[in-house]
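Please predict the structure of the following assembly.
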Amino acid sequence: MKEEEIQVFIRGTISYFEEVTGIKAELDIPYTKGPEQLLLDYSGHIGISGNRKGGLYITCPRPMLEDITRKILLTDEVDDQSVFDMIGEIANTIAGNARTSFGSEFNISVPTIFKGKPNNFRIVLRTPVVVLPINWKGYQAYLVVGID
Amino acid sequence: MRITAEDVTALLDCIRAYFTSIGGQKPEFGVPYSLDARQQRHPLYTYSGHIGISGSHRGGMVITCDKDLISGLLQLVLGGPAVAEEDIIHMIAEMVNTIAGNARVHFGSGFDISVPTVVVGEPEEFKFVLAEPTFVIPFTWSGHRANAIIGLT
């Protein structure tokens, strides 16, 4: 991925959090992922096809997803299903926003959601894989992108 | 749009063709079932190759199995056992990519497939979003268990 393409995901992520929650996210310096496990409580994965091929996932701690869900649904009651759906929605929206830059042939699949981070569990994307560390309201999350 | 009996039959043919095309014996299929989100146990084994589907359909396909099945495939293809974890990962990625690619003959050229993503290990839960019902097609090959999972919308 070229630097300007990484910028597409940075801008899309910042814009997602600002538009949906009213609070900006800050992104740390992107880095190339090694073989380590990089998973938090919930992860939403999107497959990419068309003019680019690969995949991305966003992984977040549960309290962050609960906080976002409360802001969007305007409720204090957040159940497991809402959290599950929220991580898929974030992955879907960030990947969808990237289409405005990559073009309409940048096709995205529906999200697949994973809960948990057992020691032996990892999601292997096409290398090189770029990690974008996200800070939102003190929570740490990661957008992980591996596309041709 | 839902997966039809013809779609499931086409997928069975693709899976069967994959194994026979590399000189392996035919897989034996169990009864396909709809994956209920409330099920206690998810259908993933240790290695899962996932393909995202977009275009004319949206969803995903997963082939999941344990290491022994992939080792058997590598033995067949390379003539030797898998040495590195990377060999296992590449092999399951190649398997799901080939099966999903062959499925385009049935689903049409608008059936766009992503490159495979491999999941190693078993999460606590997993779910395809917006792609229910998700079907699980259990099969065994050379005595090793596996599942093909597909959710399309």
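The mean pLDDT of chain A is 91. Residues 80-102 of chain A form the longest helix (23 residues).
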